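Hey all, sorry for the wall of text incoming. These are the two entities for the joint prediction.
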Amino acid sequence: MLEGLVSPESLSLSYADMSVPERLKWLQQHQQQEVLSLSSNDSPDLLQILQFHGSNNDELLQSTFSHFQMVGSGFGTNYNMGFGHSHEAMDGYISRTSSCQIHSPDTMGVMLKNSEENRAISLKNKRKSEVCLIIVKTREEEKTEKKIKVEAETESNISNKEASSDTSKETSKGASQIQKLDYIHVRARRGEATDRHSLAERARREKISKKMKYLQDLVPGCNTVTGKAGVLDEIINYVQSLQRQVEFLSMKLAVINPELELGVEDLSVKQFQAYFTNFPVVIASKPSVMVDVPLFPLDQQGSLNLSVSNPNQTSIDAPSESWETQSQSLFASVLR
Amino acid sequence: MQPTSSMKEEFLQKWQMGLQIYRPLIDNTSVSERRKAIKLSADVAMASLRRGTTCWSRALIQKTATEDNFLVRQMLSGIKAETLINKKLPKVMCHRKIVRRSKKILRRRKSRSAIEEVAAKARKLVKKKTQGLRNVVPGGEFMSNDVLLIQETLDYIVSLQTQVNVMRSIVDAAEAGSERTAYYLGKPKFAIEDG
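and here's what came out:
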């Protein structure tokens, strides 16, 4: 039954040397072989192993190992020796890998019978590696409640995949993308709720915090503030100040430029820059708050004028207000 | 993401196109009308950069369409169909006040430990701020979830930065031009004759 599952030469690697991620990679490599070589297995022992109903960790370990040993005698000497000398110390590792290899598509189908069997069977080839990983994770944590989490996680992953298969999301640590599946791996932490809703909520919260980080990079002065409320406050102030600037600039342009002529028709940005820097003398004499000509940012990507031209100002709102007060006196005669 | 020069160029072109529509009507308009024309055409230009993919751009176009339908139609004639202009804004998702009141009533009997109260206050504050953000971003009331709101805010901020950058450079160039002529001709500065 387990024939062809494991190639003897691969097993000559000592399990103690491999860490978990390496072992996972090793397993990945053998996925293809397993899929091809696995026949339908109806052994109830395997079902027993894989159905974690109320069994203790240690019992499970021993049952898997004993089963494995039973079957292992049919293999070549390499295989046996690999296990023979090390099984006391490393039965944990061995049973981990063995349990991963033992399951077959049909046992998978049985295991997931509770949750929409048809879907499970259709997804079985992809699920296998994932459940394999989840079993590995379970061993590491050694908590009985986690077994329920495992099934819940599988279920939630199935539901997540159905729900949002086209959005790409981040994966949890350790479960590096085994196959190119586009759903989120949310890792339930110790003692946290593991039902479908809270997992989905946690995924949503992580998405939101990721996007807030982008916003923090974009809005100047946001790095110092911590907490969602402060960041949101800064963002609101920034957007409002930008909108006010637009209004102000359009008013100014309306005053200065009665013809609504924006200049040369095919003016490119480079031409603007050149045009402007040709007359530094005239501009410097102007008592304006707004701009220092050399800092003119048309092709300077990144910083808004605001932060460049007013280094003395600490907040973003202040510059726009000072413009408005100064220019209001200027345009007082013009404004209605 | 930061405003790129290609975005700025595209914005400038579209804005110029919009202002050209106004140019025949220029002679006897007041400052405020000119300002409105400038601002509206700038807004539509900014929104059309996104070609209808984002929620805020659609909402902004619809808002300006209520003020000046003709301008919007002319500016968007080549790009998008009338559907974008004619599409009605979706109804508000829920009446928040009513929902909030009913939630408050349901929540009366919850536990009052100190930690929970602090957390609840923090959550309330965050909710208030997101509501404030919805008020600022165009079309914010119609964004059902927070993730969408933040995505739209991100995009909106970048577009606003583009708009402000280009407008400011135009204003400064225009100022420089007028000052230069004033300087060379010996006229006083800020010779603004008509109002």
